[in-house]
Structure formats: structure tokens, C-alpha cells
Amino acid sequence: MSVTPPPIYSPPKQEANLKADLTELKDALSQAAQAPAKPEIGKKHFNVENPAPVNVFNYTGAVFDDDEEEYEHADLLPSFPEISFPPLGEIPFTDRGHFANPEKANLYAEVATQGGSVKHHTPVLGVEFQGVSLKDLSEKALDDLALLIAEKGVVVFRKQDNLSIEEQLRVGAYWGPLHLHPSTGVPRRAGLEHVHVVYADKGARPDPTAFSKIELFHSDVTFEAQPPGPTLLRNLVTPDVGGDTIFSSGAAVYASLSPYFQKYLESLSAVHSGYEQAKGARGAGQHVRREPIETVHPVVRVHPVTGIKSVFFNAGFARRIVGVPKAESDNVMRFLNEQFALNHDVTWRVKWNKDDVVIWDNRMVNHSALFDFWPERRHAVRVTPHAERPESVAAYEARTGQKAKDWAEERYKALGIQKPTLDGGVGRKERGFKD
Ligand SMILES: [Fe+2]
């Protein structure tokens, strides 16, 4: 069966629009709703009699034990309906951060009205809201929040137990048309095809052949021409211990490099591929809903609202640097991934509680989800708005007439001091450890 729903989810502002679109999508997928209540699922991954399927990216949430009938979030368990989506065309997008108050006055006023609190974590990453209901923020506050996420990479809203999946979709769709994932699990409940399900339980036994979390630092679906902006993940069930997510800042990686290497990276592009993920899904016996593509993106992109430069590279989807010798490509990619995965100065780690919502700017940060909690259950639902086509430094500066910015330089400027510069080594003492 092949059903073609609308290619993008686009109720950008009003709840009425959202409801209309949900109804439309529901109608379009009414046939798909007849799909088996218990779809083909991934126990076959670890079937000793059939060891062949390999799930290349093991965050598809495809493997689970299906033996609990009374599970409270059963409607949001992953399914793999046999529906097909057309290729994505150009997607209109305007960043809501352009409409923000630079001081986020609307957002902070509403946080105060709700009696909530806000805590900033490291200078480059992380803001945490306690006692704030995300679904009750006004559109003006959501504009401010879009800017805050662009500036701080990741924000956490604790305890959003009053946020329905429809409200999570509404907030995401306010920031951009929602992405339909080509292969990973979507909720069993029909009409939620824009939701990406993350799920693991005791059936998801650790795979000794899987990629390590170093290789799995990634930014979501960067093979798309317009990869996501602010991306919302809500944890419905979290393990008591473990299951943290580590975020890593591309702006801080960029700022940590020498001006020579920064310039070199700014001249490069990389191929991002969806083929391996699709192959992994097919290998696991799952239907691929949209044919895979490859897209070339700049290795350094500029955020359209903040003007901050960020290394836009992830080992999950980037396959090669364009137009340089293979050995050079391999080593540049290895080096960049090491900076994201191993330089803890550019990372921030989120410890989840049940019903927390984490929103990250997928343009500016990579992330890696830890799988250190087996055999406990982890269940999360992601809403993923498209953003603009990544823009290189040269393209941004030509379009805006503005110079793109280095995150650390801006920070030092705000502190009234100059970013330390390299002196070519002349007169500089050799560095040593202090420990
Ligand atoms: Fe991810």
C-alpha cells in the first residue's frame, strides 16, 4: 500500500491551523491507520538464527520487547507503516528568532508570571527552566525562546507533564515546517507521522558490534537539504540511572581553532548521506518511506539570526570532504569528530527526568545519546522543524553585508577583553600540564 500524505507539516502559527492540518493528515493516512496494530518490529535484529541485519545507526529505536499490554504510552510506541513520502522540495522557512526581543524580555516576563526559574549553565551551552509550562508560553515568548536556543544551543524544560504530543507538535511547527523522517519509527497512533520515536527496553540488548558513542555524535538528518533547527525531544519514560544526552557545540569547536584552520574549513563542503541509514532500516526489515538522498553542505555554517559561525560536521552522516584527497578528507573528518566527541570543554551533558523536554538547535550542536541503561526502558518522542539550507560564511556575508562572528570573540567582547591571539609561537613558553 502506498499513501502519499502532504510533504510537510506547516501550521506555523495558530492552533486552529494545526488542528486542520492534523485532520487533513489523518484523512490522508486513514488507510495507513488500518495497518496492523502490532507492526513488524525489530526483535529480528538479535535473532541468532538470522544475524545478518545490521542497523547502521542504532538510534532508530526499532528494537523493543512487545510483551506489555498495559503500557501507558502504548499509542506512542514505534511503528513502521508502509506509507511513502515524495522527495522534499524547497521548504519556505523564516527563523522566528528574527522576531525576538534581544533581551528575551517576553520570555523572562512569562517565566516570572508562571513562578518559574531559569538557570544558565556553561557560557556556550545550556539553559534550564524549572516550573515553566512550555505549552503556555505565548508566541512572543516562543520567538524569544528561538533566539535563546540559537545562542545557548540547548535548553531544558523540566517536568512538562501537561504537554500533550499535539502541543509538542504545535510548538515545533511554530518554529518551522515539521520534518517527516524517511525511515525511523513513528507512533502507532495514526496522524502522528511527524513524530520520531526513540525507544529501548530490555529487548534492546547491547549490540557488541555497534558504533561507539564517539562515532555517533551527530546532528539529526543532516542529509536533508534543509536540516532541522530547534528540535524538541520529550522523555516519556527514563531509566533511573543513565540515558543521558551529551551535547557538543559547533560554535565552540570553530572558536577553538586557529584562524588559519578556520579559514581552511570555511572553504570546504562535505557530503552528507542518508543512504546508510536507509540501508540499515532495510537491513532490519523496515520499510523506507522516502528514498535516501545525499546533500553537500558547507563545513562551516552561519546561524541566520545570531550570525555566529559553527562547524557543521557530524560523523553520523558526513561521508567525505568534497574536492580534496581522500587521506586529507579522512583526517579532517577524524579531527573534527574528535573535537566534538572528546573535547569536553565544548560539551554539556543533560541528565533526564521523566517528562523533561530538551530543545536543541540542530544547526549549532551535535549530540550523542548514551545507551548505558539496559535493561531499563527509555521512551522519547521528537518533533523536528526544518530550518534553512545551511549557509556558508561567504554566502552569508554576501547576502547580509555583515561579517559572520566567532562565538568566543563575541563573548570576550561582551566581557570587555580581547580574545587571546596566536603569536606564531615566538616568545611563547612550551605548554605543560599542571596536574
Ligand atoms: Fe539524534
Automatic annotation (TrEMBL):
PANTHER family: ALPHA-KETOGLUTARATE-DEPENDENT SULFONATE DIOXYGENASE, ALPHA-KETOGLUTARATE-DEPENDENT SULFONATE DIOXYGENASE-RELATED
Cellular component, GO, one term: cytoplasm
Sorted UniProt keywords: Dioxygenase, Iron, Metal-binding, Oxidoreductase
Molecular functions per Gene Ontology: 2-oxoglutarate-dependent dioxygenase activity; metal ion binding
Family matches, as Gene3D superfamilies: Clavaminate synthase-like
Family membership noted in the UniProt record: Belongs to the TfdA dioxygenase family.
Residues in TauD/TfdA-like domain copies: 120-384
KW Oxidoreductase (keyword) present: yes
Keyword Glycosyltransferase: no
Organism encoding this protein: Naganishia liquefaciens
Source species, domain of life: Eukaryota
Protein name: TauD/TfdA-like domain-containing protein
Pfam families to which the protein is assigned, alphabetical: TauD
